[in-house]
Design brief:
Helix content is 31%, strand content 22%. The protein is built from two helices and three strands.
């Protein structure tokens, strides 16, 4: 017996050759790209990274440049 259809991962989007995650930071929605192929394992990994980011934002410990050093938002925060 199978597990059934996979549930979509919230805030994680498969692109052609990468994965984009979406999260709220300082009152604005942010979308950042992870340059990894959108395999099922990488999609789960991206979801875990997003959850970690959300947790750090909630704790006030999120360092944008640590996760996305090349982002235009990394220097703005």
């Amino acid at each position: 017996m199978g597990r059934g259809p996979a549930q979509p991962l919230r805030g994680v989007e498969a692109r052609d050759s990468s994965i984009r995650i979406k999260f709220m930071h300082q009152g604005a929605w942010r979308r950042e790209t992870l340059k990894i192929p959108p395999t099922p394992a990488n999609m789960r990994y991206a979801s875990k990274i997003r959850e970690e980011i959300l947790w750090k934002i909630q704790l006030g410990q999120f360092d944008y440049a640590e996760y996305f050093p090349d982002s235009k938002h990394a220097t703005a925060t």
